[in-house]
Write a structure and sequence with these properties.
The complex is a heterodimer.
Chain A (H helix, E strand, L loop, with lengths): L11 H9 L10 H12 L4 H23 L8 H16 L5 H23 L4 H21 L1 H4 L24 H23 L1 H11 L1 H6 L4 H27 L9 H14 L6 H17 L3 H18 L3 H17 L1
Chain B lengths: L3 H41 L6 H17 L5 H22 L9 H23 L15 E4 L2 E4 H23 L1 H11 L1 H6 L4 H22 L10 H4 L1 H11 L5 H20 L6 H13 L13
Antiparallel strand pairs in B: 1-2
Helix pairs in contact in B: 1-5, 1-6, 1-8, 1-10, 1-11, 2-3, 2-4, 2-8, 3-8, 5-6, 10-11
Classes of the chains: A mainly alpha, B mainly alpha.
């Protein structure tokens, strides 16, 4: 948020103008989309990785809505991602292979799960909240593990076939359709989330994050707003999971794992939380670094990720975007 | 000739005894590991997801001291507890303490980072395979009591757990240090203003908690195998013990750990097709019913 905030030294009218103009699109916001478009033409051999990056970006962005904006610390966001992934996979295996409607159904299922678990989980605070989110995800994973007839158990769901997109575009071997499909879904989701965080509802979420007591004092329905944010975020995470199923034609138990909840948290924190674009920085960086480094040396990779987390907590709480902010502010101060 | 119903009864009885026995042994290990977490979380309000790291470190230290340095069981155990307690004290002084006033998210991220680093380090040093449990020869056999045979090592585990529970209970209830801990859990600012050195108290209880975790990790290596993913794999169970038992208490985690141990043992014996599903469901229900845990004091902890 502080990226858009005017410097304190400016005249009040300028600050007011900055706040009022926060929702307007700025040129720099086109950057991720330019990069994504460029990637499609420049790196045709990496489109499979590219779609996964787009999917994880969507997932991290959904987490940003609950964690960064609403301030709900969750360790179980993979529950919704995994639900979306399994719903899409089960639909496809039972003959519903039309991708877009399946995506919508998977998103709705995850959103419903978000409402159902949110009604329970969001009543708690602090450690209990953290535990409940974690336990919900573990419970789902255990259920998916044991309900072999439905989910394939540890083997996962294999042999998924997806009908051509819009009845015309086959999911090809090179991943072109998958990439553009993921990109289109991400664009839509970004537009939605951007609308949400700049709406009065979005601002009240930020208020909840900063002080739920004050929000309650000014009459905001705290629980309902939290629940709504949780449900929207769950639905988006479910759509991300369904996208993964449709583009890779496979679902495994790891889509519900604690590791995935942790990984997406790391991605978001790496980019910077509560600023909408953290996901767009963190997810690609993490995925590319993992692709380059982890294959050669998975053990050390984990060590460096751990060290990076510790360093971020101690030295760079805003993640990469926070660092950029600080550098820009330092430069601005020097110019002034 | 014994009637069929009697044999069935007897079989059911010995199954029940076996479940209870293994469950209690398992629960004692969970308790030893988690009680330190409960006290430190209650004291400092710190969401510490890296507690399992100290248990793992204790396990590795004991195994290494016995196998490589050739130390006997008990000296190795004592030395690994001391080593890990010192390690915990060091990390608390240098890293943890800087985050006491930070938000929950920072604490979560920092401790997840620690877990990742510990997993990688353990894999690098000891390799990915699980370590053999450091059980001495004289504790390997069976113990016959009342016509039934019990594994000697599990009996020893239960006994050790009981000794630690008694020690902690007396220590917390009867000593000056214990009174200071209770006061600080109840109200940190008030404790500070009547002259309790809370900073020193934090360090000491953190070291104590890490040492107990190391003891649990080393003793329980037979049940929770020591491998690199230890801290991550069992994290949920440690947290369940703490959250269900309630923060900052000694008896709460004991009840929760025994309950969890016996339930887990019963589930794996009677309904293996459901796995740990019921444990998670029960945790969910208990935390909904009592968000501060079964024995938690309101206001303690984060």
């Amino acid at each position: 948020m502080s990226a858009e905030a005017a410097p304190l030294t400016a005249a009040p009218s300028a600050a007011v103008a900055a706040i009022l103009g926060r929702h307007r699109l700025r040129a720099v916001e086109a950057l991720p989309w330019l990069c994504a478009g460029l990637g499609f033409f420049a790196l045709p051999d990496y489109l499979a990785l590219g779609s996964q990056i787009l999917i994880m970006t969507l997932f991290a962005m959904s987490l940003d809505l609950v964690l960064g904006y609403a301030g709900i610390v969750t360790l179980g966001h993979a529950a919704f991602f995994g639900t979306g992934a399994y719903v899409a996979g089960i639909l496809a295996l039972h003959g519903w292979s039309e991708p877009i409607s399946a995506l919508a159904i998977a998103g709705a299922a995850a959103g419903l799960l978000g409402v159902a678990t949110g009604l329970i989980v969001l009543r708690a605070r602090g450690l209990a909240l953290l535990m409940l989110t974690l336990v919900v995800a573990e419970m789902l994973q255990e259920a998916a593990n044991k309900l072999g007839w439905l989910t394939g158990g540890t083997d996962g769901l294999q042999g998924i076939t997806i009908a051509p997109l819009l009845g015309r575009f086959d999911f090809d071997l090179f991943g072109r359709t998958a990439y553009l499909y993921s990109l289109a879904v991400l664009l839509l989701a970004w537009w939605l989330v951007r609308r949400i965080v700049h709406s009065p509802f979005g601002h009240s979420l930020t208020g909840l994050r900063e002080s739920a007591i004050r929000m309650r004092a000014i009459g905001a329905p705290v629980f309902r707003r939290r629940l709504r944010a949780y449900a929207v975020s769950a639905a988006l995470a479910g759509i991300a999971g369904a996208l993964l199923t449709q583009t890779t034609q496979f679902v495994g138990l790891q889509v519900l794992s604690f590791e995935l909840s942790g990984t997406v948290l790391v991605m978001l924190v790496l980019g910077g939380i509560g600023r909408l674009y953290g996901a767009f920085i963190g997810a690609p960086l993490y995925m590319i670094a993992q692709d380059q480094l982890a294959k050669q040396d998975p053990v050390n990779w984990l060590f460096w990720i751990g060290l990076l987390l510790v360093l971020i907590v101690f030295f760079a709480r805003g993640g990469i975007l926070g660092l950029v902010d600080r550098i820009l502010m330092a430069m601005g101060r020097r110019c002034a | 000739m014994v009637p069929a119903t009697d044999t069935a009864m007897d079989a059911a009885l010995s199954a029940a005894i076996s479940i209870a026995f293994h469950g209690v042994a398992y629960g004692m290990v969970l308790y030893l590991i988690s009680v330190g977490l409960s006290v430190t979380m209650g004291l400092m309000g710190f969401v510490n997801l890296a507690h399992g790291v100290f248990a793992m470190a204790g396990g590795y230290a004991a195994v290494t001291l016995m196998a490589r340095a050739g130390l006997p069981f008990f000296p190795a155990l004592a030395l690994s507890v001391v080593i890990v307690a010192a390690l915990g004290m060091m990390i608390e002084r240098t890293l943890y303490r800087r985050l006491y006033d930070a938000g929950e998210l920072d604490q979560v991220l920092f401790t997840i980072g620690l877990v990742f680093m510990a997993v990688a380090a353990a894999k690098f040093i000891w390799g990915p395979q699980p370590q053999p449990a450091p059980v001495p020869e004289y504790l390997r056999g069976q113990l016959v009591m009342g016509g039934r045979a019990f594994p000697a090592y599990r009996s020893f585990l239960i006994l050790s757990g009981a000794v630690v529970v008694a020690g902690l209970w007396l220590g917390l209830g009867r000593t000056r240090f214990g009174a200071q801990i209770r006061a600080t859990v109840d109200n940190r600012r008030m404790a500070q203003s009547i002259g309790i050195n809370t900073s020193l108290l934090f360090t000491c209880s953190f070291a104590l908690g890490s040492g107990l975790a190391a003891l649990g990790g080393a003793l329980g290596a037979d049940i929770l195998a020591i491998d690199p993913t230890y801290a991550q794999e069992h994290l949920v169970f440690f947290l369940i013990v703490v959250a269900v038992g309630g923060l900052g208490s000694i008896i709460g985690p004991l009840a929760a750990a025994l309950l969890l141990g016996v339930t887990a043992s019963a589930c794996s014996y009677l309904a293996p097709q459901f796995g740990a599903f019921f444990i998670y469901a029960a945790t969910l229900a208990i935390l909904l019913w009592r968000p501060h845990g079964l024995f938690g004091r309101k206001g303690a902890g984060p």
